[in-house]
Amino acid sequence: MIQDCEMLNSIRNGTQMGKSGIETVMKNAADGSFSMALQGQLAEYTQIQQKADELLNTLGGKEKNISPMVLSCAKMGAKMKLMKNGTTSKIAEMMIEGNTKGMIKSLQTQRDFSGHDSRVSTLSQKLLDTELHNIEQMKAYL
Predict the structure, then answer these.
(1) Domains of the chain
(2) Distance CA 110, CA 47 (A)
(3) Which of 16, 21, 76, 113 has CA 20 to 30 A from 69's CA?
(4) Whole-angstrom Cα distance, residue 113 to residue 132?
(5) What would the DSSP string read from start to end of 83-134?
(6) Cβ proximity of 24 and 92 under 8 Å
(7) Cβ 135 vs Cβ 97: under 8 Å
(8) d(CA 96, CA 115)
C-alpha cells in the first residue's frame, strides 16, 4: 500500500506541474482553438488529480504536494520565456517540452512501481497517455 500511495503522489505531482504550466501560459494564448486545447488539457489534469486524491483517501494515504518553491521557479522560467517570445508557436513548444518531461517522469515512476492496486497503475497509465496526447495536440500549433 505504501508503494501505491507513493505512485499516487507522483501522479498528483505530475498533474500539479501540468496545471501550473497551463495556467501560467493561458493568458498569452490569443488563438481561440489553442486556448480551448489548453483548457481541455487543464480539465484532464484536474480530473486525474481528483481521481488520485480519491484513491489516496480510499487507501488511507496522505497527499503530498509539490514544493511551492519548485512551482514558483517553474512559473518564473515560463514567464521569462514568454517575455522573449509569447507566440502561439512558442507556447506550444513550451507545452511539448513540459509534457515530454512529464512523460519521462511517468515512465520512470511506472518502471519503479511495485504496488499492487490495479486502479493506481491504470491511473498512472492514464496520465502517461494524457501526456502523449497533449504532445500530439500541440504539434499542430508549432
Answers:
(1) 2-139 (1.20.1260.10)
(2) 20
(3) 113
(4) 20
(5) HH---HHHHHHHHHHHHHHHHHHHHHHHHH-----HHHHHHHHHHHHHHHHH
(6) no
(7) no
(8) 29
- Rounded CA gap, 134 and 7, in Å? 21
Where on the phi/psi map is residue 60: left (φ > 0), alpha (ψ -120 to 50), or beta? Answer: left
Under 8 Å CB-to-CB from 126, ≥6 apart: which residues?
48, 51
Q: Are 26 and 40 in contact (CB under 8 A)?
A: no
Global pTM value: 0.93
DSSP for 34-56 reads: HHHHHHHHHHHHHHHHHHHHHHH
5-38, pLDDT tens digit by residue?
999 999 999 999 999 999 999 989 888 999 999 9
Q: Would the pLDDT of 115 be above 80?
A: no
Q: Do 64 and 12 contact (CB within 8 A), yes or no?
A: yes
The yes-or-no verdict on residue 141 having pLDDT over 90 is yes
Interatomic CA distance for residues 132 and 100, integer angstroms: 8
